[in-house]
Amino acid sequence: MNPEKKLTLNKITLNRPQQKIGLPPKITLNKQLDSRPQSSKIDIQPVNINWLVDNIQQENKLEWIQKCYIFFKDWTQNTECNDQSKEQILKQSIQLIDFNDLQVRLYAIKAALFGFTTLNLLDLLFQKQAKPLLRRPKSGSKIQEQLPSLLYQPQQVLAILQKTAQLSNENVFINLINDNSLSFVLFRILKLFTQLPKDQATTSQQLPYLNLIFIIIKNIANNQKEALKLLQPTYIQLIDNYLHSFPYDQTYEKDLLNLYTQITATLRNLANENNSVEMYLQNGIIKKLVISMVNYSNNYELILNTLRIMSKMSLNKECCEYFLQSTEAMQNISSFFKTYQTNIYIIIRASFLLANMTTYFEGIRQLIYYKFNQFGDILKCFDYYWTKEINPQQLNQIDQFSQSRAAWDFQILQSEKDIDALIRIIRLIANILTIEQIGLDILKNYSNEYRILISKLLKLLQKNTVISKQQEIISCTLSCLSNLTFYEKQTFLNDFEYKNVKFELITILGHFIIQNEDQEICCDGLRVLSNLSRQKDLIKQIMKSRISEGVIVLLDSNSREVVYYCLGVILNLLQDQDFKKKENINLIDYITQVLNDCTTNENDIANLGLKCLILLLDSNLNQDYAKKIETAVSTFGNVCDQVLQAKDNNELSNTRQLINQIINNIPEEGYSCMQPNCGRKFKTQMELQIHINRRHKL
């Protein structure tokens, strides 16, 4: 998902074509990543209780437990079974949880949990005193039958959940899941728990169960097919019901934070699916994420999970609007560049999130720079990862955060590199610099930091030159340089070191501009060059490096954007008389061809070409080229007139005025005096001869 790249140029008045052109700052939006494994489905035929009892010791444990699972799943349809038989098969199901076959264990878990949920589970788990459980009376009877109480104890349920949580960490186990029944029974338990009062005592009792349940659901959600089944309003609303909804108490603070961490980890896994944004918006999850940022910004794992969700959601503008409503949350996220500077996982996601938000909203750019005063910390964070990338030997600090996460439960984090953090930080910096007031403030009050930043971005370009493999870092570095150099109209006086940096930058820009691998990188490089070419002392270097010759050749490009930016560079270079004198004939050939190819929908390109031609007109222009210019602009003028006759168009009217100015200023055909150091022109041969006789014959 990329924002529109249409850019506007500083206006150039008709009578002052010598005014220079600067390309305004560009905003970039990040892209999304992540993928996961899949699963398959198996059909199981139901049986009656007698078959289960008769075959309880059969060798084929998988067949038996699969049918037992179906029986317990449909317990309400088997009310006529005697309690002794039910107890017998439930005991066997629990025993099979420790069987050596993973499939058997999975079905045993599901069978046992379904069996327990058919009982009065809340009384079972949270009764103050042990008591036998009562089954509902049979039809026509008023007598409640006691079920055996030794089997149904809280420790049994907790033990099953613990074993399931351990198994669910194994990819093999998760891939064996072939329907949503395990998730279904877990959410059935969660639904039952919502009936409990949310006082401190009850909360303390249920937290161990909830933690285990959400660990299992989190791991299940890491399977794509299972995750799609979980992205249903009923399930998401239940999850929302448990996130940030319990009273705080120091006695169970650790368990509560663990619960919120597991819930956000579940939401993080579900956020990989396409419809997660809509689900989270509709069911209140987005608001809960903001609460995490406000209340738990010091809890590393909870914050990392929340940032991973928010960064994915930040590709949606509506989600960003919700985030932006909480200034406190935004300030906490901005502070991470200082608090978690050495934590690559936090930094990648914080900069990813803020870069996307600064794409959509100007207000957050100003908040970060002015109200939060965090731009300096962002620059220091950039310096840290820049040093790790360019000069790692200079860092003696050990990244304790990264070491502590080496065995974290999502392997994708381990593949993230320092360059990934740099890319996202640079994008954020580039977006903040789109505010002109901020850019000018940095240039005026932080000129040293400004120059250092440009020199470090240059080093990144010099290290990363392979476009096919390093496209992302090259593109965002060039974009940031473009936004930075936009505000600098002239080189810092007497700073020869910085001037050399500019010379080196011009040299490396040639590598990214004169290539046909990536048009976007070519355009980004041209934007930087256009800003640099406004400075007279740099034009000579641009000519010396011969990059100007390449820019002229690129006018023949099939890319509309490439031609547009090339014309912007050339318009600035034409302020230099040496460039104009050297390239005028060559430029006329290319620019008139551009005009011949232009339509009225491309008048922005045509206007730049016309302004270049105005600067190329002089009295010494070869008559053949003068006619070539006149033919090209007249032809395009006729096309403009046809459109203007049909309807008013202010942009085309301005184009027509440029055309008129060129036609009026084209030198008339005449006869030049060929005597040394003369060169005067006359309308007729007779006038020329009179001049020669008077001035040059003694």
UniProtKB/TrEMBL annotation:
Superkingdom of origin: Eukaryota
Domain C2H2-type: 671-698
Keyword terms: Metal-binding, Zinc, Zinc-finger
A molecular function GO annotation: zinc ion binding
UniProt xrefs under SMART domains: ZnF_C2H2 (SM00355)
Entry annotated with the keyword Acetylation: no
Keyword Membrane belongs to the record: no
One GO BP annotation of this record: cilium organization
InterPro entries: ARMC2, Znf_C2H2_type
The protein's name in its UniProt record: C2H2-type domain-containing protein
Native source species: Paramecium primaurelia
Lineage of the organism: Eukaryota, Sar, Alveolata, Ciliophora, Intramacronucleata
